[in-house]
């Protein structure tokens, strides 16, 4: 199988690790090029400074061994295609030339996750428009676009077995100590109240549905077409 280029986009640092850290680790281990992009710096987060979260994001990227990490400058709670950073996002997609793009699933309790989902959907489409103005790199059509889950979940269109990478995924999440560990100077939030354990439980539930120990579930932006009937163990 030929080498793949994968672009995983989230609204905040830690979104990709929550939703698809295992998949990211699995593909970097296979030798694929995997890039992670955060649209905002999460500057409105209840805990942690922007500087702290950037250090944590770099540590998580190292843990997952990603090819590269992009930090864009959309304002937290201000993700919109009207913002000037939209052109930067569009140009990044054209420059990376990903075979696959991932974004958060649009049904999520956090408005930024829903906004990120829609923004990336638009950007993937606009990346293929040859005459789109103000973009430096030539147009590029992304082959596949999928959604990962952050806070909520739905019935996935497909699962990926991350059993061998669950530990590395949780190691990447633990890099975000300011978000997931209640400290003396922090305030209690849903993220500090057993959030990593809840992510593990969801991965275990998806794994049970898929017949493996741990799995991550994904929705497809378009109908999936298979080359042949897949085998499924009983």
From TrEMBL:
Gene that encodes the chain: bshB1
SUPFAM superfamilies, alphabetized: LmbE-like
Q: Which cofactor does it need?
A: Zn(2+)
Q: Which Gene3D superfamilies match?
A: LmbE-like (3.40.50.10320)
**What is the species listed in this Swiss-Prot or TrEMBL entry?**
Salibacterium salarium
What name has this protein been given in UniProt? Bacillithiol biosynthesis deacetylase BshB1
Q: Which GO terms describe its biological process?
A: bacillithiol biosynthetic process
Example of a GO MF term: deacetylase activity
């Amino acid at each position: 199988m030929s080498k793949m280029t994968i672009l995983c986009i989230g609204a905040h640092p830690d979104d990709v690790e929550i939703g698809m850290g295992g998949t990211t680790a699995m593909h970097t281990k296979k030798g694929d090029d995997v890039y992670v992009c955060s649209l905002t710096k999460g500057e409105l987060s209840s805990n942690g400074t922007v500087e702290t979260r950037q250090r944590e994001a770099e540590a998580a990227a190292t843990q997952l061994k990603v090819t590269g990490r992009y930090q864009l400058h959309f304002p937290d709670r201000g993700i919109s295609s009207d913002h000037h950073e939209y052109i930067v996002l569009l140009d990044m997609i054209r420059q990376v030339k990903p075979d696959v793009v991932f974004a958060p699933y649009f049904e999520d309790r956090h408005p930024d996750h829903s906004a990120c989902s829609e923004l990336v959907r638009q950007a993937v489409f606009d990346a293929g428009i040859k005459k789109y103005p103000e973009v430096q790199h030539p147009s590029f059509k992304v082959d596949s676009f999928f959604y990962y889950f952050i806070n909520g979940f739905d019935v996935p269109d497909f699962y990926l077995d991350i059993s061998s990478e669950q530990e590395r995924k949780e190691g990447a999440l633990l890099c975000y100590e300011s978000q997931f560990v209640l400290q003396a100077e922090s305030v209690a939030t849903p993220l500090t109240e057993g959030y990593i354990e809840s992510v593990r439980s969801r991965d275990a539930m998806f794994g049970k549905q898929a017949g493996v120990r741990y799995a991550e579930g994904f929705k497809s932006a378009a109908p999936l077409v298979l080359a042949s009937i897949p085998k499924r163990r009983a």
